[in-house]
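Summarise this fold before class:
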Amino acid sequence: TVNLIDPVADVWNNSATPSFTFNFTDAFSQNSSCTLYLNGTTYGTNATVQNSTNTIMIANHSVANGTYAWQVNCTDLGANLGASATRTINADTTPPTITSFGCSNIEVGHSQSCTCSATDVGSVSTSITSASTATAGTRTVYCTATDAAANTATSTATYVVSEAVGGGGAGGSGGGISTGVKGEFEKKIWASIKSG
C-alpha cells in the first residue's frame, strides 16, 4: 500500500521543484522502487525506499505553473506494483500584480484614504502601511499583495500633507481596515481617523 503524506490536497505551492512525502507498507518486502508522477509524467524515482518509512521525493525537473494530479507508484521485491491515490497540487511561482495604488493629497488632520488593487490566478490579499496626516510633509506608504502560494509583490505611493488653510488642527493616524477577498481581485481601502 502506498500512502501520500504531504502536500495535502489542493495546496498552493510556489516552488519550481516541489517536494512530496509518502510511504509504503508491505507484509514481505523491505524496500521498493517508487516513482513520482505529476499528470502522468515521471518526476523522479527512488529505487531504495524502505518499508513503513516516510520518504521525501523532490521533483527532478521544473514544474510549470498549473494544476497537477500527483501520485506515487511503488514496485516491491516481488515485482508487485502498488499505486497511491491521487492528490491535486497547484503550482504558482508568479507574484500577484498590483494594478493600482494611490492616496490623495490632504490637509493636516484630515482623514486619509488609500486604495490598493491586485490580481492573481488564485486568491489574493493586500495590506497597506499606516498613512499619517499628523504633520505637514510628503509621506510614503507601501502596499503588499500576497497570493495563495505566498508569492508577494510590493508597491509604493506618496502623498502630500499640507497645512490646513486658516490654521492647523489636531491630527493623527488611525487604524486600518484589512480585507481578504477570495478570487482573482482585491481592492484595499485604508482610512485614517481624525483625532480630537
